[in-house]
Design goal:
308 residues; alpha/beta; TIM Barrel; 32% helix; catalytic activity; Pyrv-formate_lyase-activ_prd
Length: 308
């Protein structure tokens, strides 16, 4: 495929009346109106670099070529990437530059291109990936998301994304509404993940590195053990071993959660062990767990525009 052969999406049409995410803001991002994600019509990102803190089959030994986008359609109060999700950090780049970034990360021997919180830029990303592939990009594309995605937007990514890495944060409405203002989170995320699995099917690995598939992440929150068990039960009963489940204990209470005292602490070892034991009792085998002291700000990279 040459640089002139791919079918480029008309990004502006999507951004003029934006309904890319479940918030359905209907704002004209082209004219500067801002919706829930606070993103304009130009891609904005804060970092593009090799990242070594993903699941082993994503980071491998060389690292994952991770691009951190600014803005977020979910906006969790405890977000570890708060500086960029709240749009306080970020640099505008063209889709041509984004394609170059993908190729630069491939030249650095990245195992994949890892798109973090990309949902509000999907039309631009589709164009950038196609452009980069026409210029020699061959490594997999990872879609690293909150899980709060519209099925129609995920369908735009068929043939573009190889690996889906969504969160599945809540099953109950109370926590979803309190921490993410999304009482419909379960309904939205469950349908989005269903579409992701339809696109990829069962996981494909090469030399222990994932090339295709779905890994669903779940972050245990302080006091959220019972809801977390319901999440793991739902995922395993629905998908069995078709997907991998990553159970995370890296919750880090940052400054902005002081208004939520019930989550202004780390997860205890007992809480996490209880959840892992529950997953094993259910029969979960395709999974990842975190060991030791992982609740640390070391998991939060510097959003210093490296690689942008």
């Amino acid at each position: 495929m040459s640089i002139n052969e791919f079918n480029e999406l008309n990004e502006q049409e999507y951004y003029k009346d934006c309904t890319l995410c479940p918030r359905n803001c209907h704002v004209n991002r082209v004219k500067g109106s801002l919706g829930y994600c606070r993103a304009g019509a130009e891609v904005t990102a804060a970092r593009a670099a090799l990242h070594f803190w993903e699941e082993p089959c994503i980071s491998g030994t060389n690292g994952s070529g991770t691009v951190f986008f600014s803005g977020c359609s979910l906006g969790c109060v405890y977000c570890q990437n708060y500086d960029i999700s709240s749009y306080q950090a970020g640099k505008k780049i063209s889709k041509e530059r984004l394609a170059e970034i993908f190729l630069e990360l491939q030249e650095q021997k990245a195992h994949n291109i890892n798109l973090v919180t990309p949902g509000h830029y999907v039309p631009s990303i589709v164009n950038a990936v196609q452009r980069a592939r026409a210029m020699g990009l061959i490594i997999p594309i990872v879609y690293n998301s909150s899980g709060y995605e519209k099925v129609d937007t995920i369908k735009m990514l068929e043939g573009i994304v190889d690996i889906y890495l969504p969160d599945f944060k809540y099953l109950g409405e109370i926590m979803a509404n309190r921490y993410s203002k999304s009482s419909d989170y379960f309904q939205i995320a469950s349908q989005a993940i269903k579409e992701m699995v339809r696109q990829t099917g069962e996981a494909v690995f090469e030399d222990e590195i994932m090339k295709k598939g779905v890994i669903v992440r779940h972050l245990l929150l302080p006091g959220g053990l019972e809801d977390s068990k319901r999440v793991i039960k739902y995922l395993y009963e629905t998908y069995q071993d078709t997907i991998f489940i990553s159970i995370m204990n890296q919750y880090t209470p940052l400054e902005q959660v002081k208004e939520y005292p019930e989550i202004n602490r780390k997860v205890t070892e007992e809480e996490y062990d209880d959840l892992v034991d529950y997953a094993l009792e259910l029969g979960v085998e395709n999974g990842f767990i975190q060991e030791g002291e992982t609740a640390s700000e070391s998991f939060i990279p510097a959003f210093d525009y490296q690689g942008i």
